[in-house]
Structures are given as structure tokens and as C-alpha cells.
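Task: sequence design from structure.
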């Protein structure tokens, strides 16, 4: 049994092609079933905005080619068009790829946590549909465990890299908990709405949406469980707000230093945090000169984001080493499993010979006491175990080598383990 993965991702295919291969969540098990029908013994399928991948456990070395044709059919395109953008990993490379995907080392943004959840969900859908199996189940569960180790033992996911996430991290540094804070969104554009949504998810107590168009303010406020306000209320909002997201199309500064100085007195100099993601800027940067006023524009947030991304990439080296170590260990376990039937048969054969020889010896020495008989049995057991030890170690070592099956076959022949089913113990390092 060999694992393989066939797919295309943001690294190999443009979005115009990837979208053709997108598989809805309720069709994932159907797609995995098609892999089974094509000859795969086990399968699960993952489809996100950045990748579509078919995972399979196969016994047929030609299965990869059949999956290429199947992937082409899924995307309603020719196989020649797919080949240019797809990748096929088999054996060790497939395990390594699965572990890297789960650990978010193959993601568009290294360290993002969404892919692990998407992978778990896709696997669970296929598992419940009965199209996975023991080999893929074992590989997937180990991949999830490795991903958890990566997140807990490295800093790959600790630093925010999106502008909105960076803004929330800064807000928490200024205020601590956001549960009792009031946020104000100035403007109702998409970027501002997204940042406000992140703040809402981060737990801000109240959100006010101020816009020149009251209809638009009401619509956005309703979508974010907030309260609409007129932009004319800005002086009052500066007194009430803890966090202000500025995202209007105004050509000049909506909030200038004199406005903020006046508001600070009324708010008794409570801290206020401005997230200015408008271009041109809405907030006068001179506000940073005032005590307890913090202003970050889109360039400031992007600079922090880039620094955090660089930190994640440094941590990715440690994560890659961990994944490689775990993949090697897992492959070693799989390889050892392939020689278990031979080891079991060898122990059984050695036990038969030991028992026969002990019985012969005891017949020749009828006058031995019970204690002496026990010593003979222990002696035979010790000799048997000592002789078997080196054979067992060699079998396990050979299991990880490309030609390990030759050692297995020689062992079975030398010890007359002819109960072996032909071809059962093919040890591969793939």
C-alpha cells in the first residue's frame, strides 16, 4: 500500500484555473468515491480557495496516471492542461506534503491556521462517508498531531500578518481586553467594514458606524450588529470612542490636532486608538504628538505586517525541521509494519524449535528437579532471544531500505516460513 497526492495549488496554478477545480464541501465525498472507483483503495479530497488535492492509498503503481485523467474531468478540462499545473507526490513525498499542508508550511500565508481546520473538515466528511481507510486515517491523524506540535513548539503562527489582525493586536497592546471598548467606523467602504468586523469578532462591546449617507450607515451597522450615526456627529464620537477606524473617501483630514485636543479634555484624557486605512489619509498624523493618542496609518500597519511575516518565515525553518523529523518517524513506522508478519512468523517458528529441543533435553535428563528443568527452559529461551535479536533488528532496518524486501524474502527462506503469503512483506522506503 502506497500513499499518493495529486493536486494543484496557488503555487502551481492561477486562480482562473483553480476555480475550475473547486469542489463544494457537500461533493467532497463524491469526488473521493470517484478516486476509489478509479482504483484507489482509500481516499479523501481537500478543496479550498488555494488548493484542490486528491489523497489516496493505492496498491497499483499506475494509479497516478488514472488520477490525472480523473482530475481533468473534475475541472472539465483536458489532461494536458492539468499536467502543466499539477503535482503528483508518492510514498515519502506524499506523507511529507500532507504534513506540510497541515502545518501551514505550504500556505499562501505561512502559519495561517485556517488550512488545518479545512483539512480536518474535508477528511472527516470523507471518513464518515466510508471512503478513507486505515492507511489514510493513520496518516491524517498523525498530520493533525504534527500540525499541533508545530503551532505549540514554534512561533510560526504567533505574529499577525493581515492589516486587520495587526490592528487588533495593537489595540490589545493599548487597552488589554477589548470587551468594554467602543469602536467607531468612519465611512462604510469594504476595507473599513472588514476591519470593523475583525474588531467585532475580537469582542468590542459596541460598534458605531458613521457615514455621510445614513442609508449606507444603517446597512453596514445592521450587518455588523452596530448602531448607525451621521458623520456630522464626529465631534461627539471622538469623545465616546476608544477605537476609531477611518476609511472614508474624504480628500482632507477629518480629524485634526485642534479637534482632538478639545475632545481629549472632555474624555478626561482616556487613550484613543486611530486605525487610518484611508488613502488619502483621514487622520492628521500630528495627533500622535498628543498624550494617549495613537495613530497608525496603512503604511504603519503594513510595515508591522511585513516584519511579522519575516518572523514567521524564520520560525518556518524550525517548523520544517520538525515536520521532516516527524515524517521520517512515521515512514519508519509504516515500513516496520510491513515486516511485522515475518517477525511474528519468525518468533513462532523459533518458539516451536525451542519447545521441541527443550522437550528432547528433558526426556534425556529425567532425574532433573523442577528447579533444574526451569533453568533449562530459561537457558533455551535466552539463547533463542539472543539469536533472534540481530535478525529482528536487521529486518526492521531493511524495512526502510528500497531493497528491504530481499532481506525479508531471504529470512523467510532461511527459516522456512512458508506460511507467508507471496508478496505480503514488500518493504519499501517510499
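Answer:
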Amino acid at each position: 500500500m502506497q500513499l499518493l497526492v495529486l493536486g494543484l495549488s496557488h503555487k502551481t496554478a492561477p486562480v482562473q484555473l483553480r476555480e475550475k477545480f473547486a469542489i463544494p464541501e457537500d461533493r467532497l465525498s463524491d469526488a473521493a468515491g470517484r478516486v476509489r472507483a478509479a482504483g484507489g483503495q482509500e481516499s479523501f479530497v481537500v478543496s479550498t480557495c488555494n488548493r484542490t488535492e486528491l489523497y489516496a492509498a493505492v496498491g497499483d503503481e499506475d494509479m497516478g496516471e488514472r488520477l490525472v485523467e480523473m482530475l481533468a474531468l473534475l475541472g472539465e478540462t483536458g489532461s494536458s492542461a492539468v499536467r502543466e499545473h499539477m503535482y503528483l507526490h508518492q510514498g515519502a513525498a506524499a506523507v511529507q506534503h500532507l504534513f506540510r499542508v497541515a502545518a501551514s508550511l505550504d500556505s499562501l500565508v505561512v502559519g495561517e491556521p485556517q488550512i488545518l481546520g479545512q483539512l480536518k473538515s474535508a477528511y472527516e466528511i470523507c471518513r464518515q462517508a466510508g471512503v478513507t481507510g486505515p492507511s489514510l486515517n493513520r496518516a491524517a491523524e498523525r498530520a493533525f498531531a504534527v500540525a499541533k506540535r508545530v503551532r505549540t513548539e514554534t512561533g510560526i503562527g504567533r505574529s499577525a500578518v493581515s492589516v486587520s489582525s495587526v490592528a487588533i493586536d495593537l489595540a490589545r497592546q493599548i487597552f488589554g481586553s477589548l470587551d468594554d471598548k467602543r469602536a467607531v467606523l468612519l465611512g462604510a467602504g469594504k476595507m473599513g467594514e472588514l476591519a470593523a468586523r475583525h474588531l467585532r469578532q475580537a469582542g468590542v462591546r459596541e460598534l458605531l458606524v458613521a457615514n455621510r449617507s445614513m442609508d449606507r450607515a444603517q446597512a453596514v451597522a445592521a450587518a455588523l450588529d452596530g448602531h448607525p450615526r451621521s458623520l456630522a456627529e464626529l465631534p461627539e464620537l471622538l469623545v465616546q470612542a476608544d477605537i476609531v477606524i477611518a476609511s472614508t473617501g474624504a480628500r482632507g483630514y477629518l480629524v485634526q490636532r485642534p479637534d482632538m485636543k478639545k475632545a481629549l479634555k472632555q474624555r478626561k484624557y482616556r487613550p484613543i486608538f486611530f486605525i487610518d486605512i484611508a488613502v488619502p489619509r483621514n487622520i492628521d498624523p500630528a495627533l500622535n504628538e498628543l498624550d494617549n493618542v495613537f495613530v497608525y496609518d496603512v503604511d504603519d500597519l503594513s510595515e508591522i505586517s511585513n516584519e511579522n511575516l519575516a518572523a514567521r518565515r524564520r520560525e518556518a525553518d524550525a517548523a520544517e525541521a520538525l515536520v521532516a523529523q516527524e515524517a521520517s518517524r512515521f515512514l519508519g513506522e509504516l515500513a516496520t509494519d510491513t515486516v511485522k508478519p515475518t517477525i511474528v512468523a519468525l518468533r513462532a517458528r523459533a518458539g516451536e524449535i525451542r519447545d521441541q529441543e527443550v522437550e528432547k533435553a528433558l526426556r534425556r535428563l529425567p532425574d532433573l528437579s523442577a528447579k533444574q528443568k526451569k533453568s533449562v527452559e530459561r537457558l533455551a529461551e535466552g539463547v533463542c532471544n539472543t539469536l533472534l535479536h540481530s535478525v529482528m533488528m536487521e529486518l526492521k532496518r531493511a524495512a526502510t531500505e528500497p531493497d528491504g524486501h530481499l532481506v525479508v524474502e531471504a529470512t523467510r527462506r532461511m527459516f522456512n516460513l512458508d506460511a507467508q503469503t507471496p508478496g505480503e512483506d514488500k518493504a519499501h522506503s517510499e
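The mean pLDDT is 88.
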